[in-house]
From TrEMBL:
It comes from Paramecium octaurelia. This is Methyltransferase type 11 domain-containing protein. It comes from the Eukaryota. InterPro entries: Lys/N-term_MeTrsfase_sf, Methyltransf_11. CDD domains: AdoMet_MTases. Residues 45-148 form the Methyltransferase type domain. Belongs to the methyltransferase superfamily. GO terms for biological process: methylation. GO terms for molecular function: S-adenosylmethionine-dependent methyltransferase activity.
């Protein structure tokens, strides 16, 4: 699945198949955890939004300040057109998550649903994943939360998230996979993982080891 780490793959995929697709979970599957981490007033960043319905479903639940970014020009343009009537605080921008064009501390929270997993499939995977995490950490405010929905087991993901330079506490939760169709493993390392997805909640300004 190394193609998942390449921007060219996503351009071709979204051109060929423009219909909405959600990796892993719809909003309903993580709603309770999201509501603990964010409020409707939170300024949120969706990293690698693609054509997922996650942000749309969050918008309908009252989370209406969401900036969505993706490396694909094709999907960004399509989503801008699709959601042009959602208002100025719900937007889609073409952007590389490894070098985001946002000021430090610009967001209260960031959400990643499968983006780190996809990056970890590609070339220079560890370096690119670390760049994304560093950028997310930079654009989050002092009490910001990085909310990651992943297929990756804790022993494969915490090594990237629990580094000394990150002043956040990481809590791991589990949610059941909803259906076969949305629970595709995109990394070979996790093909034998249990029937759950992992939620990594990284909270800045929280003592390390604190329980969410």
């Amino acid at each position: 699945m190394s193609q998942y780490g390449k921007a060219e793959y996503w351009e071709e995929r979204y051109t060929r198949d423009p219909e909405p697709f959600d990796w892993y979970q719809r909003f309903a599957g993580v709603k309770d955890l999201v509501s603990v981490c964010f409020t409707p007033e939170s300024k949120l960043l969706n990293v690698g939004a693609g054509n997922s319905r996650l942000s749309e479903e969050m918008f309908d639940e009252g989370y209406q300040n969401i900036t969505n970014i993706d490396i694909s020009h094709v999907v960004t343009k399509a989503m801008q057109e699709k959601y042009k009537d959602k208002g100025p605080n719900f937007k889609y921008l073409h952007m590389d998550a490894r070098a985001m064009d946002f000021e430090e501390g610009a967001f209260d929270g960031a959400i990643d649903k499968g983006t780190l997993d996809a990056i970890l499939c590609g070339e220079s995977s560890s370096s690119n994943a670390q760049k994304v995490i560093q950028e997310v950490h930079r654009v989050l405010g002092p009490k910001g939360v990085f909310f990651i929905i992943s297929y990756g087991l804790p022993e494969h993901r915490l090594q990237y998230l629990e580094k000394p330079e990150y002043d956040w506490n990481v809590v791991v939760k589990q949610v059941h996979k909803p259906t076969i169709s949305t629970s595709i493993a995109i990394t070979n390392e996790d093909k034998d993982a249990p029937n759950v997805h992992y939620i990594y909640i990284c909270t800045k300004g929280q003592p390390k080891g604190a329980k969410q």
